[in-house]
């Protein structure tokens, strides 16, 4: 298994070397990469990220029923866990991942899912204040321009609404930092920036941080909740 993740990391590094000089990841390369991952994504990564994903959805389910945007919905692995009182729109850059999500919605009769759309999280084609809550799970440390994504999440969220994030941030020290290093090949497989500075998504005037907590059985992930100003 370690050899598998090392091989995955090498493949991701090869992909990362194809970035444009503007530091924007070529969208075709992203789509091609996740097209390959789509059939096995849930089996390989589903369990690893389950605790962080469940924590974010549990927080959302405590909120009043409303329209929810999930950015980077992928295969839709989180969709069955949302309260049926919410109305969910999911977006992702990968059509192949979304196809699996649509199959999951149909098989599970998930009538609370309103739409699943191909979209760039940094350039959403949605009206201002369209959603009561926006959610991004394991997304911000992957995208080439996290500030643009944060700006879009803030823009499409209603004033007073919540922007909910969960990820692993490499600021962690001690044994959590050690574990992060051990999982580096897995992180590389998903394109995580292991040198990601959490300050890149903090300090915005349009988003007020109201909750920050470690989640998961060993507190390896961080849940961030912002209120839209």
Plain-language structure description:
By secondary structure, this protein is of the alpha/beta class. The protein has one domain (2-228): Vaccinia Virus protein VP39 (Rossmann fold). Helices cover 36% and strands 23% of the residues. The protein has helices at residues 2-16, 27-37, 41-45, 50-61, 95-108, 146-156, 174-182, 184-189; strands at residues 67-71, 87-92, 113-118, 131-137, 157-167, 207-215, 221-228. Strand 6 (207-215) and strand 7 form a beta hairpin. Residues 11-25 have low confidence and may be disordered.
What global shape is seen? globular
Number of DSSP helices? 8
- Major sheet: arrangement of strands: 3-2-1-4-5-7-6
CATH architecture level-2 label: 3-Layer(aba) Sandwich
Unreliable stretches (pLDDT < 50, length at least 5) are: 11-25
Helix/strand order:
HHHHEEHEEHEHHEE
Give the CATH class.
Alpha Beta
GO molecular function, one term: phosphatidyl-N-methylethanolamine N-methyltransferase activity
Protein name: Phosphatidylethanolamine/phosphatidyl-N-methylethanolamine N-methyltransferase
Organism: Kaistia defluvii
InterPro entries: Methyltransf_11, Methyltransf_Superfamily, SAM-dependent_MTases_sf
List keywords for this structure.
7 strands, alpha/beta, Rossmann fold
């Amino acid at each position: 298994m370690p050899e598998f993740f090392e091989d995955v990391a090498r493949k991701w590094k090869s992909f990362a070397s194809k970035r444009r000089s503007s530091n924007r990841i070529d969208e075709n390369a992203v789509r091609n990469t996740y097209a390959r991952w789509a059939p096995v994504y849930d089996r390989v990564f589903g369990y690893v990220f389950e605790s962080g994903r469940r924590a974010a959805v549990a927080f959302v389910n405590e909120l009043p029923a409303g329209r929810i945007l999930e950015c980077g919905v992928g295969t839709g692995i989180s969709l069955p866990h949302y309260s049926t009182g919410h109305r969910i729109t999911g977006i992702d850059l990968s059509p192949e991942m979304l196809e699996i999500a649509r199959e999951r919605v149909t098989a599970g009769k998930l009538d609370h899912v309103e739409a699943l759309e191909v979209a760039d999280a940094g350039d959403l084609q949605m009206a201002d204040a369209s959603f009561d809550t926006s959610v991004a799970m394991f997304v911000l440390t992957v995208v080439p321009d996290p500030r643009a994504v944060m700006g879009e999440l803030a823009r499409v969220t209603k004033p007073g609404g919540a922007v909910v994030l969960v990820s692993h941030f490499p600021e962690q020290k001690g044994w959590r930092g050690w574990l992060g290093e051990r999982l580096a090949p897995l992180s590389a497989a998903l394109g995580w920036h292991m040198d990601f500075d959490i300050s890149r998504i903090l300090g915005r005037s349009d988003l007020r941080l109201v909750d920050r907590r470690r989640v998961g059985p060993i507190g390896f992930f961080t849940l961030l909740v912002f209120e839209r100003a």
